[in-house]
Amino acid sequence: MTEAVNQPDQPEVIEGGQPDLFSKFDPLIEMRRNLLDSGVEDPFSLVMDRVLSPTTAICNGRETILLGTYNYMGMTFDPDVIEAGQKALTDFGSGTTGSRVLNGTYSGHKAVEQALCEFYAMDHAMVFSTGYQANLGIISTIAGKGDYIILDIDSHASIWDGCKMGDAEVVPFKHNDLEAMEKRLRRIPEGAGKLVILEGVYSMMGDIAPLKEMIAVAKKHGAMVLVDEAHSMGFIGPNGRGVAEDQGCLDDVDFVIGTFSKSVGTVGGFCVSNHPKFEIMRLVCRPYVFTASLPPSVVATACTSIRKLMHAADKRAHLWENSRTLHAALKAAGFHLGTETPQSAIIAVIMPDLERGAAMWEALLHEGLYVNLARPPATPANMTLLRCSLCAAHTAEQVQQIVGMFQRAGVKAGIL
Amino acid sequence: MDREATKARIDALIEPFNKKGVAITDATRFTDDLEFDSLTIMDFVAAIEDEFDIIISMNQQAEIENYGQLIDAVVKLKG
Ligand SMILES: Cc1ncc(COP(=O)(O)O)c(C=O)c1O
């Protein structure tokens, strides 16, 4: 019965054709057809024809402000980052054509791992080809058959997939519910290995976790703790190390998972840790071993970006300012938001249903604004959300423009 | 633990979740017959876990499709 958490509805044959392995997708095909038949632009096939800056692009032929990219720190067009990438491309070629443990470790891969160690002030860093693979690899390798994983029910897909791949006993608890977590920890059989998995920022609603309290409870019960800080790196915490740093409990986190695909502005994933035996992961972690390493240009851009993020206090302050301003304005305009107060650079605007959500999304696009449309089953409580993620490169004027766009689109879509 | 006594306690627990008042037998399926979604399942499982002070992991839940299997699983978990 658990499967319902991330499984589509039961298969059902629609028109013609023999049932085959694709029959299970019929309900989703049907849902998409209904949505598109209503005449809205397909929210899941947008094409960026040209990207003008971290905050603007030509989308489906229209100049558009980007408010759904997770490019929090606006590093994608940083001149130093681009120069580093171009140099590496010239000097080391377009790709490594090999695994990190064979011919795929270049000086650039070691350099970005060193930058991560310095960024987090931790002893070890291991870079993966994506953040998805970092979660998949680390979780499935450290928590195996007979071990217990206690995790928040709203965890990212890559965390769930890592749990499944490792074959540990998986025990979810209600979102951010300290008491529910503690009860489950208490019931785990004596002597079993325990891993608690939390996220700093939950990307659907943009809320943060009470990590300090939760990690203290996890440690009291002898569990190791992994925190995914994908949506906080570079932005939250005095040094941009994330929510755990902000709440003063980073020292109690055994493994931090992160990605280069958000604040860092390129692609890749990582795990940093102080565990004395951490380096053995490089030999036993299959999603690290059995895939090609990142191209030299990518690790060079990541390394440069991470080093610049260490000294980005001004940008962090401006991003907070943007988030607070937009949150307050949308709330005042009468939108229903995912959090009462701004907790991160993500603001989730809750839509009454998928139809009106899609209509609102389209009205915003016509205004010249791109946001993420999130729909069931990926969302908590099967909500339809318009997820906005702010960027340190959004100007105060752009934020005001965005507010106006939301108000007009909200009226047009019948939400306000 | 006694199956009848266990069943009686679970009968009481499922009542608030059985919004449509479906007549529940051992063969009643959670997703197909009771139309439980993932959130309802989480809350229902949590209620059972708290009542019996047990853990029903997702791995164990995957094996449970109907009401009878749930009662059997709880009886077994209580030992
Ligand atoms: C919480 C969380 N973890 C991991 C990932 C995966 O990151 P990546 O895009 O590097 O695969 C994401 C992003 O989609 C995420 O939101």
UniProtKB/TrEMBL annotation, chain A:
GO terms for molecular function: 8-amino-7-oxononanoate synthase activity; glycine C-acetyltransferase activity; pyridoxal phosphate binding. Residues 64-403 form the Aminotransferase class I/classII large domain. Signal peptide: none annotated. Its cofactor is pyridoxal 5'-phosphate. Pfam families: Aminotran_1_2. Keywords: Acyltransferase, Pyridoxal phosphate, Transferase. Gene3D superfamilies: Aspartate Aminotransferase, domain 1 (3.90.1150.10), Type I PLP-dependent aspartate aminotransferase-like (Major domain) (3.40.640.10). CDD domains: KBL_like. Its EC number is 2.3.1.29, 2.3.1.47. Belongs to the class-II pyridoxal-phosphate-dependent aminotransferase family. This is Glycine C-acetyltransferase/8-amino-7-oxononanoate synthase. It comes from Novosphingobium fluoreni.
Automatic annotation (TrEMBL), chain B:
It comes from the Bacteria. Residues 4-78 form the Carrier domain. This is Acyl carrier protein. It comes from Novosphingobium fluoreni.
